[in-house]
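Re-run with default settings, no changes from the original entry. Doing this only to confirm the output is reproducible before filing.
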Amino acid sequence: MKAAYITQLKQELNTRSSNELLEISLRLARFKKENKELLTYLLFEVQDEQSYIESIKNETDRQFEEINKSNIYFAKKSIRKIVRTTNKFIRYSGRKQTEVELLLHFCRCLKDSGIPLNKSIALNNIYIRQIQKIKKVISSLHEDLQYDYGEELKSLQ
C-alpha cells in the first residue's frame, strides 16, 4: 500500500467529523509507541515547554548514569542511543530553542561523563556533529538568544 501525501491526508481529515477524528487518533496511538508519545506531547506538554525540556534533561541524565564505561564500544552504543532519543524528543517539539537547550545539555553531559572522547574517533565525531548542529540552530534564533546560547557553546568547545 502506498502512503498518501500530506495534502491528501489534510483534505480527507477536513471532511471527517470530530468523533471520527477522535477514533483515528486513538487508533494511531495504539500502533506505535512514538505515535503515543507524540500525542501525549501534543495533548499534555505543549502548554508547558519548560517542564517538557526539564523532563527530557532528567531522562538524558538518567541514561548517562546507566552508561557502561568499562568498554568504549558499549559507551559508544549507549551514546548513540541517547542521541537518537534526544533527536526524537526534539522532533516532537519542533521548536528551535528547545532543540538548542537539549543538545547543549547532551553535550554538557557527554563532556562531564568522564568518557575519553579523544580515544574514539566515532565518539569524537558524535560530539563534533552535535556542536555543529547547535551552531546551525543558534544562527536561526533571535539575537539575544544567540548571544546567551553562544556563550554556553563556547564553554563546551
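The chain has a mean pLDDT of 88. The radius of gyration is 19 Å.
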